[in-house]
């Protein structure tokens, strides 16, 4: 093994941040620095000699690959670490700690870096490359770290799930493990004579159940005893550990949903329906518009006739554009248990698993847009613990709410970002409180076991909606990543209350993420889909809970078949794994498929092109028997009749009683909680401060800007609205498909009111549905009957009274509310173990989650231009109208106001009249047909009417005068402002108020004119005033309230990211004159400069593994008049495609090779260090004068690393490095086009207008000031970031990465090559822009289409 030091692993900010956290545990530590360490496994001794020598070509290539990054480190620290790496001797005055991947695992970094090395001609020398980090830590007295000191903070240095901490260099065997395969084991149920004593056999199986963490129920143990060693047709043999583990996963609550299928007896009354039966009732009553329900990985819903735009294998991967029905699919998953144990990978694989669900529908489908949501206990932000927050403790092996929200959102966002799916809606709630049960007893209800929601929409072609029956002889294939010893027993672990299983089993059950691998697998599925009726895929399943032990049996069971599998054909990167570990691990990014033997060659060719691993592991058999053979160990780990595996143990019966715990009325005067407050203004001031900082109400910006929301170019409405980009959108909207005149789409919105379940489970469930609907009302949906919902149910089903509450809640939705509304619930999920148990020095403890229903609504959108937002228009003579859907009720139970005073209350809000709710929804749709009738819309939910109105003012940068007289009852201003009954507020012109009121009156909706909007002027503070009678009971500036609303997000961001950047953004809101985003154009976007051009010149839409932005790029060029052709780097390297056949090249955005060797650098090195690829690109850039090249985001980074081949770029262009914020930044920002000769920007110079950005490495780093000076002298700056006043800026977040002088696009002197970090290709259509002025006259296109049309104009028709 070679050990090669790399560059610094820590930025200056990161080292300071880690040091600060370490010093909280070991104050004597004074410094920390770190280097990446590379471990190289040569294929032979000869190869080792070549690689060790820095002067050989092989040695040079290796060191070139492993030199990346630009973080600083002092020479002393670097040399001390290097000495340790060469001698394995600790320094005398410091301690070196080395972090390496856990033995037997292969990190995602390793697999990608090894791929690059092999492509760069080192395949015969390098078997594998792995990476660790060496930290050097010093103390004030220059002594070594004691082991107990290191153990207190080692979790800050490594991921305990995937890495180990060492103070010695690891042995080669540890890093590159080549262990002996672990054996198959048998659980001895039979006696020596082959006979079984049932009692002894049962004892042995109970023991195995605990040791293996199987989570088998008593009746399942009895079932297995009978199946293996019972009488009659029993198998009469001992089970293998593989068989038992498989059975446990396949039949776990997580996979089988036994509680939802159970019989129920409540208060001695046997209920007529199962929970699932009541949910199915909604589909039975309203089956229309649903094409597939309950039978696949996601529900399939009827879409619109639109277009298909995708590369076609039949036309040499040219993109084709034609009309086709586009159906959409809906899915929402939970990943609660893994997120509690290890937040980043738990949430990441939660999103990844749900994405696979969206890709594995029918014969193959495609994910489109996602959502992420979280519910946790009290945040307890260090230094900022709120008055309503209590620290109830937690088990040591699970994360705190603060740690979860620091890491889990990053995990969910990272997977979506790298896979290439926008995350465009979600929610965030915190709750933990001690609540009374009786006069003398209480309990803690909260979310120590968090809720992590991952969901989204996808699309599926009409021919692929349903899975085909598999024929005997079909090849069974595992597509995607290799097996590794991770995620073992996740299905069973998730089915237990956290704390019941051991910490080791909890850790083992957490999976690891590799989104770039999942991207590759999805590309294979996409190209299969492109073949239409000729797709080689007959059926497809994702690999999730239970791993292959669930997925492979399931895919053949669906067709009533069996299977014969060869275990050693399963792709596996750890040859020490036992048969049980290979079969049952939950390694991610895998699918199982059935492929016809006649089409296997086509399938394999697609896999090779995408570099996606696969294994043909077996065949489907007519005999209904699952046989898994192991050719290496020469045994049969599984030989089971399918009915034994999928046969049903006795149906679960649940017996429970209704519990009515003590509830104390909420004092709406607040005098009980604020004895020092003397006036209603005092009360309202304190309440506003608390409620606006409660996470459920406060800004969610820190959760949103980390997630790409513009990828695909099909996002019509994301979370941020208006010129000031305030995250208050009620609904997310996508566009159906690619096309200039496609205005249809899909809407997604969420609803959840979980604290209400402590008062009334049924009301909580109804209010979740109601809130979802008031959110979805903002979208243009034909009528309420087109909405379909996902219901995600969570509770501690065995907690006293929770079963009865669950039944009431499901009945309220399934048999009552949804049937009345005409809404079906064709998809959902349940998690029935929402309790955390532990013990400490104070004894046994438990925290139980309230019954929780998370509703997500999905619906087809008629016109995506007509989505309402909360942005109040800055115009004269408009009024605010309150729409009361609660029949005047103002109950405060379970409200945000109650929570911030540590109360629950006793009366829950509820859906008062389903018919009024239905009529309201449909009336809002009619209002959209009346042009300009409603100017702004926002529903009432968390924070009540107060939060609704102030959020609308935030979005519009205006003030408001609100008159409360008509809605205040009995002088109770607090109840009027802070109740969270269903309702909404709209902005209407005074002249059209009567028209709107008449419309709502006809729908039976009560309306109140609440006051007026105060237009913004730069000389005013935009006062938001609430008046009762002739007095102002509360009045303050918009800025002051906005700062309060932003504070929680700012605090979280400052702990997680660069605190200086977070503070700058937080202070930006103090600028009352900020003009916001705007368009100052020197050209007419509606002008088509390509008019008269008839041909379609070919442009190569270039990608490599991990690139995800190729389709939006192809569509932009297609719209501009080019023939876009999908070109993978494998096409060039294999010489199947030559760049000589293209006039243009577009390098797309994404995460090539996961950016493991630097952003875009691995991709570039696969060109520079591969002789044929280098020759192709050199010829394209140097030998021809008729070519152009565009690189965007990752493509920009790629070109910046390719400058030695690009005339005029070498020595002057910057490289693009980590953002100053230390975070992925997804925003809409202002840019200015410079005076330039770029062929792409002709006629656009001087224009200032918004554009989407989404990157983590966008900082333009020049080699030195002289290089920057030369760059500027040559006029190579094409585009700059500007602030909202139009000035070039380095200020965050107007400049999201901190690049000097705002530089964000660079060009060559001849103007034919442009590299830019922002994404023009994602906003070529008007509605893809997060905001545009209402009075624009561009038609359906946006200003950025001009960039692509300019390229087409330059090429002309004489190419």
UniProtKB/TrEMBL annotation:
Keywords: ATP-binding, Cytoplasm, Glutamine amidotransferase, Ligase, Magnesium, Metal-binding, Nucleotide-binding, Purine biosynthesis. It comes from the Eukaryota. Residues 205-258 form the Phosphoribosylformylglycinamidine synthase linker domain. GO terms for cellular component: cytoplasm. Pathway: Purine metabolism; IMP biosynthesis via de novo pathway; 5-amino-1-(5-phospho-D-ribosyl)imidazole from N(2)-formyl-N(1)-(5-phospho-D-ribosyl)glycinamide: step 1/2. It is an enzyme of class 6 (ligase). Residues 37-176 form the Phosphoribosylformylglycinamidine synthase N-terminal domain. Its main location: cytoplasm. GO terms for molecular function: ATP binding; metal ion binding; phosphoribosylformylglycinamidine synthase activity. It catalyses: N(2)-formyl-N(1)-(5-phospho-beta-D-ribosyl)glycinamide + L-glutamine + ATP + H2O = 2-formamido-N(1)-(5-O-phospho-beta-D-ribosyl)acetamidine + L-glutamate + ADP + phosphate + H(+). It holds the Pfam family FGAR-AT_PurM_N-like. InterPro entries: Class_I_gatase-like, FGAR-AT_N, FGAR-AT_PurM_N-like, PurL_large, PurL_linker, PurM-like_C_dom, PurM-like_C_sf, PurM-like_N_sf. It is found in: Cytoplasm. CDD domains: GATase1_FGAR_AT, PurL_repeat1, PurL_repeat2. PROSITE patterns: GATASE_TYPE_1. Residues 699-860 form the FGAR-AT PurM N-terminal-like domain. Its EC number is 6.3.5.3. One of its GO terms (biological process) is 'de novo' IMP biosynthetic process. Residues 472-629, 889-1017 form the PurM-like C-terminal domain. Phosphoribosylformylglycinamidine synthase involved in the purines biosynthetic pathway. Catalyzes the ATP-dependent conversion of formylglycinamide ribonucleotide (FGAR) and glutamine to yield formylglycinamidine ribonucleotide (FGAM) and glutamate. NCBIfam families: FGAM_synt (TIGR01735), PRK05297.1 (NF003672). HAMAP family: PurL_1. In the N-terminal section; belongs to the FGAMS family. This is Phosphoribosylformylglycinamidine synthase. It comes from Circinella minor.
């Amino acid at each position: 093994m070679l050990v090669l030091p790399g560059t610094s692993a820590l930025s200056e900010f990161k080292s300071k941040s880690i040091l600060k956290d370490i010093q909280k545990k070991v104050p004597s530590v004074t410094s920390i620095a770190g280097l990446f360490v590379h471990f190289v496994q040569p294929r032979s001794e000869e190869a080792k000699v070549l690689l060790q020598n820095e002067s050989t070509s092989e040695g040079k290539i290796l060191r070139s690959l492993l030199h990346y990054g630009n973080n600083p480190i002092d020479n002393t620290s670097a040399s001390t670490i290097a000495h340790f790496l060469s001698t394995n001797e600790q320094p005398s005055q410091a301690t070196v700690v080395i972090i390496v991947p856990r033995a037997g695992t292969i990190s995602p970094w390793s697999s990608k870096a090894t791929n690059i090395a092999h492509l760069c001609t080192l395949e015969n020398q390098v078997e594998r490359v792995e990476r660790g980090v060496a930290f050097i830590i010093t103390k004030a007295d220059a002594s070594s770290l004691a082991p107990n000191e290191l153990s207190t903070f080692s979790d800050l240095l490594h991921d305990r799930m995937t890495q180990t901490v060492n103070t010695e260099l690891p042995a080669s065997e540890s890093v590159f493990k080549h262990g002996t395969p672990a054996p198959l084991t048998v659980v001895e149920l039979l006696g020596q004579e082959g006979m079984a004593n049932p009692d002894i056999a049962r004892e042995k199986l109970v023991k195995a159940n605990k040791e293996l963490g199987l989570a088998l129920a008593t009746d399942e143990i009895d079932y297995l005893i009978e199946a293996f060693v019972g009488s009659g047709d029993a198998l009469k043999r001992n089970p293998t550990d593989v068989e038992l583990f498989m059975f446990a996963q396949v039949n776990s609550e997580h996979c089988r949903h036994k509680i939802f299928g159970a019989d129920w007896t409540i208060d001695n009354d046997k209920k007529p329906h199962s929970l699932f039966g009541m949910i199915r009732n909604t589909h039975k009553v309203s089956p229309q518009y649903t094409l597939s329900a309950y039978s696949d990985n996601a529900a399939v819903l009827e879409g619109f006739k639109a277009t298909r735009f995708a590369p076609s294998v039949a036309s040499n991967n040219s993109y084709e554009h034609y009309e086709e029905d586009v159906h959409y699919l809906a899915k929402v998953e939970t990943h609660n248990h893994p997120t509690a144990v290890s937040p980043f990978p738990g949430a990441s694989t939660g999103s990844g698993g749900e994405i696979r669900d969206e890709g594995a529908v029918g014969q193959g489908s495609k994910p489109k847009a996602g959502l992420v949501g979280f519910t946790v206990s009290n945040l307890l932000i260090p230094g900022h613990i709120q008055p309503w927050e209590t620290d109830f403790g937690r088990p040591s092996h699970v994360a705190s709410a603060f740690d979860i929200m620091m890491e889990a959102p990053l995990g969910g966002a990272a997977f979506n970002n790298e896979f290439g799916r926008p995350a465009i809606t979600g929610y965030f709630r915190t709750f933990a409180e001690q609540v009374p049960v009786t006069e003398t007893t209480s309990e803690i209800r909260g979310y120590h076991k968090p809720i992590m929601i991952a969901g989204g929409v996808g699309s599926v072609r009409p021919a692929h909606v349903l899975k085909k029956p598999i024929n005997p002889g079909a090849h069974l294939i595992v597509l995607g990543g290799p097996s590794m010893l991770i995620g073992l027993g996740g299905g069973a672990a998730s089915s237990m209350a956290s704390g019941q299983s051991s910490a080791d089993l909890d850790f083992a059950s957490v999976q690891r993420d590799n989104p770039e691998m999942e991207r590759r697998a999805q590309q294979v599925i996409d190209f299969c889909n492109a073949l239409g009726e000729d797709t080689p895929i007959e059926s497809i399943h994702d690999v999730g809970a239970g791993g292959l032990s669930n997925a492979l049996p399931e895919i053949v069971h669906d067709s009533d078949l069996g299977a014969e599998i060869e275990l050693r054909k399963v792709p596996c990167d750890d040859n020490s794994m036992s048969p049980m570990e290979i079969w049952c691990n939950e390694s991610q990014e895998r699918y199982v498929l059935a492929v016809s033997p006649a089409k296997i060659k086509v399938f394999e060719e697609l896999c090779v092109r995408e570099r996606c691993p696969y294994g043909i592991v077996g065949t489907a058999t007519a005999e209904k028997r699952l046989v898994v053979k192991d050719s290496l160990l020469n045994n049969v780990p599984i030989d089971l009749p399918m009915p034994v595996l999928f046969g049903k143990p006795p149906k679960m019966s649940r017996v429970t009683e209704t519990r009515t715990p003590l509830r104390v009325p909420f004092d709406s005067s607040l005098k009980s909680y604020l004895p020092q407050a003397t006036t209603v203004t005092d009360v309202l001031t304190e309440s506003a401060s608390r409620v606006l900082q409660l996470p459920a109400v406060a800004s969610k910006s820190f959760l949103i800007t980390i997630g790409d929301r513009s990828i695909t170019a099909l996002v019509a409405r994301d979370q941020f609205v208006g010129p000031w980009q305030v995250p208050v959108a009620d609904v997310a909207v996508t566009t159906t498909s690619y096309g200039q005149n496609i205005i249809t789409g899909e809407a997604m919105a969420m609803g959840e009111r979980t604290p209400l379940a402590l008062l009334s489970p049924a009301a909580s469930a109804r209010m979740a549905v109601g809130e979802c609907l008031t959110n979805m009302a903002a979208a243009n949906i034909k009528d309420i009957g087109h909405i379909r919902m996902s219901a995600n149910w969570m509770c501690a089903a065995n907690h006293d009274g929770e079963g009865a509450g669950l039944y009431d809640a499901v009945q309220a939705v399934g048999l009552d509310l949804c049937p009345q509304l005409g809404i079906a619930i064709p998809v959902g999920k349940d998690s029935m173990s929402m309790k955390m148990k532990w013990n400490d020095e104070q004894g046994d403890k438990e925290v139980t989650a309230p019954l929780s229903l998370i509703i997500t609504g999905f619906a087809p959108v008629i016109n995506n231009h007509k989505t309402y937002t909360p942005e109040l228009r800055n115009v004269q003579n408009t009024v605010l109208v309150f729409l009361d859907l609660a029949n005047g009720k103002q109950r405060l139970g379970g409200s945000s106001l109650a929570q911030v005073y540590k109360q629950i209350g006793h009366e829950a809000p509820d859906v008062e009249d389903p018919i009024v709710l239905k009529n309201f929804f449909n009336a809002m749709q009619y209002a959209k047909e009346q042009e300009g009738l409603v100017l702004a819309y926002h529903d009432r939910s968390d924070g009540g009417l107060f939060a609704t109105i102030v959020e609308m003012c935030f979005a519009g940068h205006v003030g408001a005068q609100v008159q409360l007289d008509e809605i205040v009852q009995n002088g109770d201003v607090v109840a009027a402002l802070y109740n969270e009954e269903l309702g909404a507020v709209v902005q209407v012109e005074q002249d059209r108020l009567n028209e709107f009121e008449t419309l709502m009156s006809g729908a039976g909706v009560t309306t109140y004119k609440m006051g007026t909007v105060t237009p913004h002027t730069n000389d005013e503070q935009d006062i938001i005033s609430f008046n009762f009678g002739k007095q102002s009971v509360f009045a303050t500036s918009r800025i002051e309230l906005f700062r309060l609303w932003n504070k929680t997000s700012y605090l979280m961001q400052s702990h997680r990211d660069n605190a200086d950047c977070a503070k700058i953004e937080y202070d930006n809101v103090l600028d009352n004159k900020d003009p916001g985003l705007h368009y100052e154009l020197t050209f007419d976007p509606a002008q088509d400069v390509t008019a008269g051009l008839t041909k379609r010149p070919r442009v190569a839409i270039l990608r490599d593994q991990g690139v995800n932005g190729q389709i939006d790029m192809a569509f932009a060029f297609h719209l501009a008049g080019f023939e876009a052709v999908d070109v993978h780097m494998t096409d060039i390297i294999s010489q199947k495609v030559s760049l000589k056949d293209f006039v243009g090249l577009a390098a797309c955005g994404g995460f090539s090779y996961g950016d493991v060797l630097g952003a875009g650098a691995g991709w570039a090195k696969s060109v520079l260090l591969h002789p044929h690829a280098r020759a192709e690109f050199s010829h394209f850039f140097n030998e021809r004068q008729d070519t152009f090249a565009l690189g965007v985001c990752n493509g920009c980074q790629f070109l910046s690393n390719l400058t030695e081949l690009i005339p005029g770029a070498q020595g002057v262009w910057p490289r693009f490095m980590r953002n100053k914020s230390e975070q992925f930044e997804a925003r809409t920002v202002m840019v200015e086009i410079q005076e330039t000769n770029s062929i792409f920007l002709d006629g656009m110079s001087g224009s200032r207008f918004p554009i989407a950005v989404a990157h983590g490495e966008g900082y333009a780093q020049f080699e030195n000031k002289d290089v920057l000076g030369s760059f500027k002298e040559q006029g190579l700056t094409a585009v700059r970031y500007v602030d909202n006043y139009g000035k070039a800026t380095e200020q965050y977040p107007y400049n999201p990465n901190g690049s000097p002088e705002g530089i964000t696009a660079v060009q060559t002197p001849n103007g034919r090559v442009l590299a830019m970090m922002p994404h023009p290709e994602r906003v070529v259509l008007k509605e893809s822009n997060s905001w545009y002025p209402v009075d624009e006259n561009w038609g359906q296109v946006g200003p950025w289409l001009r960039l692509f049309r300019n390229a087409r104009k330059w090429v002309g028709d004489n190419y």
